[in-house]
Amino acid sequence: MQKSVKLQDGLMKDNLAYNIFFTLKVSTKALIKNFLDNAEKLLKDYYRDKKFNIRTEESVCQIRHRFSSGGINGGNFVYMPTSYYILKEIMDYLKLNKDDIFVDLGCGKGRAMFVASMQGVKKVIGVEIEEGLVKSANENAGNFRFNKSALFILHKDVIDLDLSEGTVFFMFNPFGEDLFSKVIENIKASLKINPRGIRIVYYVPVYREILNRQDWLVPDGNLLNNRVLVWRNVKN
């Protein structure tokens, strides 16, 4: 009987050791795969930048300090561009046309703008408050090889921005909650000035509930497992 108990204990320990080993092995494989996938995407982004003759890569410690002219704290955000493969998914979904005006709120160095401009839209507007990023975006605009649209880069506070032209508003989580709420209010107000159909594309939708609470907006799309959400306005 004692020998049987020891045997069972030994089997249990062996089984536990195997489970730990197996879990570590699977976790390590997943980590390595994730690392390699991310490295591949970064490399593809680098070569896409080279092809377009622009530089939109992430900069070490390049921080946006977002305070609006109305005193609203917009939060501090490290600059990070949207990967080209995500932008392709977005553009494939939106199917932009020659009448669209694409507005990138917090455009950084302009990557999303330049991809949108390749769709042959009427106009692309990028808005950025950080002076260094605006300078980079303007340099990129001068070097970009594949532009098919009118490009405008504005060094402005979004609170002071006239939003009445835009038909598609793109945001990569650029603001804190208070400023984000104010921007959504301003988009709504712009519909009274210029009634039209609009879409809001929100990548990394931290404050999605603010949009979900709007009675003038309805969900329009869910891309990449909730990483990108799209809303459109309800037309009267």
Explain this structure.
The chain is an alpha/beta fold. It has one domain (63-233): Vaccinia Virus protein VP39 (Rossmann fold). 44% of the residues lie in helices and 22% in strands. The chain contains six helices and nine strands. The chain has helices at 2-52, 84-94, 111-117, 131-143, 177-193, 208-212; strands at 63-67, 73-78, 101-105, 123-128, 150-155, 168-172, 199-203, 217-223, 228-233. It has a seven-stranded mixed β-sheet. A two-stranded antiparallel sheet has the order 1-2. Helix 3 links the parallel strand 3 (101-105) and strand 4. The radius of gyration is 23 Å and the shape is globular. Mean pLDDT is 85; it is low at 66-71.
Describe what is shown at a glance.
The protein is of the alpha/beta class. The protein has one domain (63-233): 3-Layer(aba) Sandwich (Rossmann fold), CATH 3.40.50.
CATH architecture: 3-Layer(aba) Sandwich
Cα(first) to Cα(last) distance is: 81 Å
The helix content is: 40-55%
Q: How do the helices and strands follow one another from N- to C-terminus?
A: HEEHEHEHEEHEHEE
Principal-axis shape: globular
Question: Structural class, please?
Answer: alpha/beta
Low-confidence stretches: 66-71
CATH homologous superfamily annotation: Vaccinia Virus protein VP39
Return Rg in Å: 23 Å
In the sheet with the most strands, the strands line up as 5-4-3-6-7-9-8
The beta-strand count equals: 9
Counting copies of identical and different chains, the oligomeric state is: single chain
What is the CATH class designation? Answer: Alpha Beta
Number of helices: 6
* Beta strand %: 15-25%
